[in-house]
Amino acid sequence: MxxxxxxxxxxxxxxxxxxxxxxxxxAGSTGxxxxxxxxxxxxxxxxxQTRQRSKASSASKERPTxxxxxxxxxxxxxxxxxxxxxxxxxxxxxxxGRFSGTISGLFGATTISGQLIxxxxxxxxxxxxxxxxxxxxxxxxxxxMHGSETSKARGICTYQVKRA
Length: 164
Fold this sequence. Notes:
Structural class: mainly beta
CATH architecture of the domain at 71-163: Beta Barrel
Order of helices and strands: HHEEEEEEEE
Strand order of the largest sheet: 1-2-3-4-5-6-7-8
Strand content: 35-45%
Radius of gyration: 39 Å
Oligomer: single chain
Number of strands: 8
Shape: globular
CATH class of the domain at 71-163: Mainly Beta
Largest sheet: 8 strands, antiparallel, barrel
């Protein structure tokens, strides 16, 4: 062995002996981590962190269940002008709560359309020559509704509605 190589090997061995058995690896190097890694800057140990999972409740993950208002309904209405009416709705509802359908029992072709939000139906009753805003509340487990429309000719008309 040449003299420079022998000196290099001797220096390397001397460094290991002087190190007194301490490891020369750094945390995260290929050799892994040696010693405690959970020390704080002050030298004490950090408190174990409780890991909080971002576990949303099943109610917030799911959409609110929409009641289905699709189908045939029978209605009666009493208006401020003392007139009384009766007829039916035939409603088709989409999965997003929007609905549309036909109204029977009135003069001419009439339609109903709008949106079901929670247990509230907000929409429009359309007649041959005009439209009115309506607001109904779904009740009795989705088997009845009550609400009103405001008519220019008849005033407020109050409805009672039940499944056919």
